[in-house]
What we know:
The chain has helices spanning 6-10, 84-94, and strands at 21-25, 38-40, 44-52, 60-69, 72-77, 104-111, 117-133, 145-151, 154-157. The chain is mostly beta strands. The chain has one domain (7-157): Pnp Oxidase, Chain A (Roll), CATH 2.30.110. InterPro entries: CHP02241 (IPR011747), Phage_T4_Gp19 (IPR010667). One of its GO terms (molecular function) is structural molecule activity.
Amino acid sequence: MPAVSAASTEGGFYPPSAFYFKVVFGNSANSPDASFQDISGITSEMTTEDVAEGGENRFVHKLPRGVKHSNLELKRGIAPLTSPLVTWCKSVFEGGLALAIQPKTIRVYLLDEKAQPLRGWVFVNAYPVKWDVESFNSTKNEVAIEKIAFSYSYSERLK
């Protein structure tokens, strides 16, 4: 039986694995902030409006209103203060809105075994809206985790 390759995943025979991915903030392709444990929130949903049929009570039409996106959530071990992502988050959350928030473009790539992008998503005008440190527990031996949620204007699938 032949080995499964990236080409066979592209041909639709096997879905790609979800554990090998890369995150890029702005133009910093080789940033130390590219390592994350978990990414969630790559979601688009069409909102609808219910309109009752005039004079005909049996029908309710669902008309499209627009697309909404959930927040993009990234999860990783707590990073040092020198991290560019931590610096950005600190300026947003601890700056008291004294300075304008600087949105960035965030790119997420699902990679193959040769570190080449299989799929990609771009999140435009993203900025942090939540910075959460998970609870500490003295009875467990786990890595201290931070979660950062980003709002964004829109997203596009690249591949």
